[in-house]
């Protein structure tokens, strides 16, 4: 991996980073690399000149606004020495890249945007690691979009286990924690499989109502939330948890929590929850045909607040057990890293 010994970066530039929110002038990934030599498109209306730090795996330029030459930026692109990527898709498939701009002169040092991506293995395989963050401020911030995006995704040492974690601020304002394991086969009783998704939406601009539908032991429940507060959603499902056939031993639990501030915990929150437990060890589900998604482990999902609804288990093709959705399903791991 490229060693940043020949270039002095602002501390924020060392963030491990990357989702597509704000962007430098001309946008991210407007470059290619051939055997470590980086070629970048100069943004429209600007003039670009390479600086001394440029070398194998590094391009540093001064970018000047032609309409107002008192406004300029440093643009820095870093990737592995010797790397080759001839188009956008291959650039975004690189295992390591950093790209950012910082304002200088009339551009102002508070104008800053930075993205970097580190991937391990073959583009997000379960045993790989991918860490992403993006930060931006000043004139390089993109309107109301998030000034901070953090993402971490990592396999857990086996191809059937994975986890991811995300924190978005402002534009897409929710925390997301996903983990899943598909090590067992519910129909055969060999081990437990499970998934958990935790998401949070904060600094709400308007009030509303969260609703959980009827479950075996709870009726329909509602929970009001107000502008300015935060809400969280937790969904847990686990196969091979109960007794009897696979149709009554797949746990489903869902909880909504409302808190009146945007702190880091749910202290003082009010919650509603529902599960498919019947009180005797059974967790009944509904089957909808071989190869299709089951029902009975979710009781309402607010996509406007919490993003893409996670998928429940699928019935296998011979109706003897449950399987996780095929990639790129949304069982967990539903955040796309460019």
Question: What is the radius of gyration computed over CA atoms, rounded to a whole number of angstroms?
Answer: 24 Å
Which shape, going by the Cα principal axes? elongated
Strand order of the largest sheet: 3-4-5-6-7-8-9-10-11-12-15-16-17
Q: Provide mean pLDDT, rounded.
A: 76
Sequence-ordered SSE layout with sheet pairings:
Blueprint: E1 31-34, E2 37-40, E3 46-50, E4 58-65, E5 71-79, H1 88-92, E6 96-105, E7 112-119, E8 129-137, E9 148-155, E10 161-168, E11 174-181, E12 193-201, E13 208-212, E14 221-225, E15 230-239, E16 250-259, E17 270-275, H2 303-306, E18 314-315, E19 322-323
Account of the protein in words:
This protein has helices at 88-92, 303-306; strands at 31-34, 37-40, 46-50, 58-65, 71-79, 96-105, 112-119, 129-137, 148-155, 161-168, 174-181, 193-201, 208-212, 221-225, 230-239, 250-259, 270-275, 314-315, 322-323. The chain is an all-beta fold and 338 residues long. Strands 3-4-5-6-7-8-9-10-11-12-15-16-17 form a 13-stranded antiparallel β-sheet, with no helix packed on it. The chain has a two-stranded antiparallel sheet with strand order 1-2. Strand 13 and strand 14 form a beta hairpin. The longest helix is centred in the N-terminal third of the chain and has 5 residues, at 88-92.
């Amino acid at each position: 991996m490229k060693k940043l010994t020949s270039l002095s970066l602002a501390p924020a530039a060392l963030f491990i980073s990357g989702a597509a929110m704000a962007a430098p002038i001309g946008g991210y990934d407007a470059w290619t690399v051939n055997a470590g030599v980086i070629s970048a498109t100069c943004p429209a209306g600007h003039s670009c000149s390479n600086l001394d730090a440029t070398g194998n795996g590094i391009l540093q330029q001064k970018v000047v606004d032609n309409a107002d030459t008192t406004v300029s930026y440093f643009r820095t692109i870093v990737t592995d020495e010797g790397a080759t990527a001839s188009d956008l898709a291959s650039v975004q498939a690189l295992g390591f890249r950093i790209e950012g701009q910082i304002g200088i002169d009339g551009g102002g040092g508070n104008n800053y945007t930075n993205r970097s991506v580190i991937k391990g293995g073959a583009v997000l395989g379960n045993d790989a690691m991918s860490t992403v963050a993006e930060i931006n401020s000043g004139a390089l911030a993109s309107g109301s979009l998030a000034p901070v995006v953090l993402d971490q995704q990592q396999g857990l040492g086996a191809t059937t286990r994975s986890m991811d974690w995300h924190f978005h601020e402002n534009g897409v304002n929710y925390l997301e924690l996903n983990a899943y394991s598909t090590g067992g086969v519910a129909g055969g009783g060999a081990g437990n499989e499970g998934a958990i998704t935790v998401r949070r939406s904060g600094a709400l601009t308007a009030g509303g109502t969260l609703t959980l539908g009827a479950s075996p032991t709870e009726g329909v429940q509602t929970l009001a939330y107000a502008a300015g507060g935060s809400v969280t959603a937790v969904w847990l499902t686990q196969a091979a948890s109960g007794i009897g056939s696979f149709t009554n031993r797949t746990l489903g639990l869902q909880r909504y929590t409302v808190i009146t501030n945007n702190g880091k915990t749910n202290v003082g929150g009010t919650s509603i929850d529902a599960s498919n437990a019947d009180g005797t060890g059974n967790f009944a589900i509904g089957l909808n045909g071989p190869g299709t998604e089951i029902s009975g482990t979710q009781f309402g999902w607010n996509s406007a607040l919490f993003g893409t609804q996670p998928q429940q288990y699928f019935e296998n093709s011979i109706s003897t057990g449950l399987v996780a959705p095929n990639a790129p399903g949304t069982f967990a791991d539903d955040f796309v890293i460019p």
